[in-house]
Write a structure and sequence with these properties.
The protein is α/β, with parallel strands linked by helices. Helices cover about 40% and strands about 20% of the residues. It has an 8-stranded mixed sheet, sandwiched between helices.
């Protein structure tokens, strides 16, 4: 059971190869989350999901992969695999298990995960949980969406890294991302 665990769900690309600098960024993020005492939760497959899980394992942390039954096995760094019957149940579990979310660069799957996390908090389906965008990749999307939402200023304008509603943040490095997660989750 994960009730006593501090779980952070990390969204990112499943197609990034080990030679891509983003793989190392995801590894470093997973390692730092693990050293900070967090369980690393991801979709459980390759790319940045694999890199983050590997980093977390190297730090001695637990890893959880939320997969889809028909999509194949998880990466070898997943300690606990929770296989869901379909994509929508997978998304539901990724949202439910995370006490916070970190979003790495990715494609349509990552966009879906990011948008769902944002929408669930924005519509008060979920309690506010920090969503931290690592790097600048998603900033154009956020800027576009904010232009469509009236009065979309951050809840605390004294924090320039807060992008929306006091729960959506931007950080440039894995270190600052983990610090932001710690500052928003731990007392």
């Amino acid at each position: 059971m994960t009730n006593d665990l501090k779980c952070i769900t990390v969204f990112g690309s499943g197609t990034i190869g080990t030679e891509n600098p983003l793989y190392q960024t995801a590894y470093e993020l997973g390692f730092l989350l693990g050293k900070a005492g967090f369980t690393h939760v991801s979709g459980g497959y390759g790319g940045t999901m694999e890199a983050g899980a590997k980093g977390a394992r190297d730090a001695g942390a637990k890893t959880i992969g939320i997969t889809v039954e028909s999509w194949g096995p998880p990466n070898p760094y997943i300690i606990e695999c929770r296989s869901m019957p379909n994509l929508f149940r997978r998304l539901e579990q990724l949202m439910k298990i995370g006490q916070g979310y970190i979003v790495l660069p990715g494609a349509t799957g990552t966009l879906l995960e990011f948008a769902l996390a944002w929408e669930r908090i924005n519509k008060h389906i979920d309690r506010p949980k920090p969503i931290v965008l690592l790097g600048d990749f998603w900033l154009p999307v956020v800027d576009f969406i904010k232009r469509q939402i009236p009065d979309s200023r951050p809840a605390d304008v004294s924090h320039p890294d807060c992008l929306f509603g006091g729960f959506l943040w931007h950080e440039p490095t894995p270190e600052k991302t983990v610090h932001r997660i710690i500052s928003r989750i731990l007392p």
